[in-house]
Known about the structure:
Number of strands: 7
CATH topology of the largest domain: TIM Barrel
Structural class: alpha/beta
Order of helices and strands: EEHEHEHEHEHEHH
Shape: elongated
CATH superfamily of the largest domain: Aldolase class I
Number of helices: 7
CATH architecture of the largest domain: Alpha-Beta Barrel
Distance between the termini: 66 Å
Radius of gyration: 21 Å
Largest sheet: 3 strands, parallel
Number of domains: 2
Amino acid sequence: MVTVAIRRMNIGQDQASKNLLDYVTPDKYTILPNTAGCYTAKDAIRTCEIAAELLNGEKLIKLEVLSQSKTLFPDIVETIKAAEILVKKDFKVMVYTTDDPIVAKELENIGCECVMPLGSAIGSGIGIINEFNIREIVENATVPIIVDAGVGTASDACIAMELGCDGVLMNTAIACAKEPNIMATAMKYAVIAGREAFLAGRIAKKQSGSPSSPKAGLVTGE
């Protein structure tokens, strides 16, 4: 799956420029148009409608409505407003949101097909700030949960998967790494390792140590 910022990348809206879809073809990749750069529900909805028109009616979209340019945190009021309208228009909405479990559940109840809480600010590379909230979102969800934003290195992706998330969306951590190809490989294995660890189930954390070998039949030397 490749997500594309419709307001920043050409997928056919500018006939005079190179078309991304000539290089990243829909027959090989799932194209996920997103509303990056939108600060109102109205702009986001219009962007989604343009994307659907350019992609032959495909209505899978990633919704993000930003509050301001410093943190790029989502505007929850405008996000909910846009999500409600887009769902009624039969769009399949994957939605960028905060790590607030109550908001995440509300977006699910609206009809969003995937909820995408941030780990930290977009492009910050800080990683997951509030593991408790992400775990709470996962445990109460009946739709896929994908961490969107803040991943800086492979261990961040692994943590997201260990918390039970269904996936991680990333760009900056790979694109801005000193060796993007190597980082992409690291992310792949981190996601696999994190998912396997989640499915395996970690041991309980304890305040004191305990023997890792059986006590039965202990040799006493007597």
